[in-house]
Amino acid sequence: MSRHRLKITWLAIALFVLSCKAVTPAPETIIVPKKPKVALVLGGGAARGLAHVGVIRVLEQEKIPIDLIVGTSVGSLIGAVYASHANSFELEWEAFKVTKDDIFDFTIISSRMGTVKGDRIEEFVNKVVPVKNIEEMRIPFAAVATDLNTGEMVVIDKGPVAKAVHASSAIPGVFHPVNYLNKTLVDGGVVNNVAVDVARQRGADIVIAVDVGGNIVNYEINNLFDISLQAVNIMGNEIARFKIKGSDVIIAPQVGDIGMLEFEQKKRCMNEGIAATQKAVPLIKNKIDEWLRKNNANAAKQP
Q1: Cα 32 from Cα 75, distance rounded (Å)
Q2: Mind listing the domains of the chain with CATH numbers?
Q3: What separation in angstroms does the CA of 115 have from each of 111, 142, 146, 230?
Q4: Could you confirm whether 187 is annotated as catalytic?
């Protein structure tokens, strides 16, 4: 056999051997399970908003994730405290200490624009919230206010926490309007007391809405503050009836007979929040499970 033929023979053998080697399979695609973005929407209701504390305690105990908090009026206050700490114990601790005087400074009067300037709210927020700006919060947060000049909703999701909560809680006729963001802002409950749509706009897959302004029963009107607070509450409730339908779960603590300034009823408010949320937990978990099954099944089908 000539050397030329020998080379060709060895080359053919080498190619044959290589062709017989097993083809290395392509690496499997690892599908990371998707998780829903769960939003907690906290409505306004003055002292009744302390029920939000009980709601959050149960959600945390049940390990239900909260990926976004949207708050209106007192909902913005409770929401800001929790979003900054992400710890229900810290929230309860601050809630048990809060009094009417921490929110309303009856010694500072502004007769032209309102009754209470509202500086005390900002002082309280700066004291109990460990961060200064919304961007620093552990849970994404947005406060809802109303532009008094245009009637439009204003969503505040950046900047000073205290100013955002103050603007969201400036009840017309009770608090002086807040000049912020080149706007004249008042309580968000005037246009959107339970801002489910804001949570949806921010990508929420599952929205848990907490309404503490409804179920008004035997409410006593004792003074001008009660009149203003209740008027805004009634107006906010009428709007909330329509907007809250866009949520996946509605939690409505039975606090309608508690006065808007009865902060001494905090323990009962919290207990009502706990009771209402415990009833809602199975539905919340079902909604999350349904989302997981649907979206992860769809992901598994993709090539």
Answers
A1: 34
A2: 38-295 (3.40.1090.10)
A3: 6, 26, 18, 16
A4: yes
User: How large is the C-alpha radius of gyration of the chain?
Assistant: 28
Separation between Cα atoms, residue 95 and residue 42, nearest integer Å: 15
Determine the Cα–Cα distance for residues 186 and 43; give it in Å rounded to an integer.
15
Please, what's the b/e burial string for 126-159 (b: 16 or more CB within 10 A of its CB; e: otherwise)? eebbeeeebeebebbbbbbbbbbeeeebbbbbee
How far apart, in whole angstroms, are the C-alpha atoms of residue 180 and residue 40? Answer: 25
- Active-site option among 67, 76, 168, 187: 187
pTM of the model: 0.84
The CA angle 241-243-244, to the nearest 5 degrees, is: 70
Q: Using one digit for the tens of pLDDT, what is the confidence trace for 99-122? A: 888 887 655 545 555 567 778 899
| Phi, psi for 134 (deg, rounded to 5) | -60, -35
The pLDDT tens digits for 150-161 are 999 999 999 999
Q: Which residue reads 């500086």 in tokens? A: 119
Based on the residue annotation, tell me whether 119 is a catalytic residue of this protein.
no
User: Within the chain, how many helices (H) and strands (E) appear?
Assistant: 10, 8
